[in-house]
Amino acid sequence: MKEQTEIGKIKEGRYIVVEDEPCKVVGLATSKPGKHGAAKARIDAVGIFDGVKRSIVQPVSAKAYIPVVERKSGQVISIAGDMAQLMDMKDYSNFEIAIPADKKGQLEIGKEIMYIESMGKRKLD
Length: 125
Description:
By secondary structure, this protein is an all-beta fold. The protein has strands spanning 2-6, 15-18, 21-30, 40-47, 53-59, 63-67, 70-80, 83-88, 94-98, 112-118, 121-124.
């Protein structure tokens, strides 16, 4: 899910969709309107799920998509290698999620953990 807003209303620390990937805005610079053109905004963002840095330059009045980023909790059902099976605590659906290297030894079966979900992708928080 995503919503639409103007580039000029986007702030640092918020989220934006760049190249069909939800990203967190890490840098924002706007230029003054010139003699023949509108003010432009340069947005530097880092992908939530892949960590790739992306940047866009567009007029301040242009439209951009804002992803709906939800923080949810899930219970660990099983752990197999670098994959964990979780059950969502609200709708009780089961799904698999990759375990990042820094969280490898911290997960325990039966324990509740937080994860991020946006645009059909999930990641441990």
